[in-house]
Amino acid sequence: xxxxxxxxxxxxEETGTVLIGxxxxxxxxxxxxxxxxxxxxxxxxxVAKTTIANLFARxxxxxxxxxxxxxxxLPADITGTHIYRENIGEFELQRGPIFANLVLxxxxxxxxxxxxxxxxxxxxxxRVTIEGDTLSLPxxxxxxxxxxxxxxxxxxxxxxxxxDRFQLKYIVDLxxxxxxxxxxxxxxxxxxxxxxxxxxVVHIEDLLAARETVNEVYVDQKVLEYIxxxxxxxxxxxxxxxxxSPRASLAFLNAGKARxxxxxxxxxxxxxxxxxxxxVLIHRVILGTEAxxxxxxxxxxxxxxxxxxxxxxxxxxxxxxxxxxxxx
Length: 328
Description:
The protein is built from 15 helices and eleven strands. The chain is an alpha/beta fold.
C-alpha cells in the first residue's frame, strides 16, 4: 500500500479506535510525514497532544522516542555524547533519543533556548554533530513538538528560527461536550484502551514510496502565484513586524501537494493552499507593536490577510484540473 490516500485513510481509521476528534491534526501529521516536515502542537495540558503523536507513530511502526523537555535538559541529553568505557579504555558514542524515526519533544517551550536549538540541525539537515562527528539520522525522520500556551508559568517562547523549522502548527483545543461524552463512554467500556492498543497499518517502505507519489503531484503556475500572493501579503502587512519567510512558501508547496494526494487528487487546488494557510503561517509571522498593544492575535491577523488576497476563481480551478490532466 503506497497510495497516499490509502495510507492516510488507514492511519485515520486506526487512530480513531482510541482518539475522538482531532482528525485535522492527524491529517497534518500525515502531510508532514509525507513531505519530510515537522509539526508543532499547542494546547493546554490534558488535551491528548502526546497521545496523538504516540498513536500516529504506532500506526506506521516508527521507532518512537519521547523527550520530556524541562529547564535542566541539556543538548547532549537530546543528541548524545561520548562516554568513557573503563573496561575497554576507550570513549564510546552514546546516541541520544534524537536517533529515532519520530521524536516527540514534549513541552518544548519548557526547555531553555540553548536546548531548543539542539534540534535545529536535526530538523533542517537530518543529521546531528556530536563533538565534531556528524551523523545522519534515520529515514524517515520527523519531529513532533508539543508546547503549552506561552501565558503559562515556566515557559520560554520558541525563537523565530526554531518556529520556522516547523512546517505546520496546530492548536489542540478542548473537546466539544459531545466529543468528551463519547470519550468518557469509550473509556468506561474499555478502561485499558491506550496507544498500546493500536495496530501497525502502514509499513515504512510504503510510506517512503508514497513520498515519491506526493512529489509528482501537479502544481499549476497560477496556484504558485496564489502562494506568493499570500506570502507577500504577510510581508506587506502593517500589523506584522516580520512576514513569512521563503521556507513558508516551500511549506505551502510541499504541504499542498501532500494534502492533494491524501485526498485522492493529482493536482493542487487553491482550496488546498487556503485550508493550510493558518497552519503554515501562525507560528511564523511576528506581530508588530500596534498589534501587540491592541491585543490582536496571530490567528486573527492571518485570517484577515487571507480575506484580503483574491482567491482564484472557479474558472481558474477548472484550468488547474485541465492543465493537470494534460501534464499527465
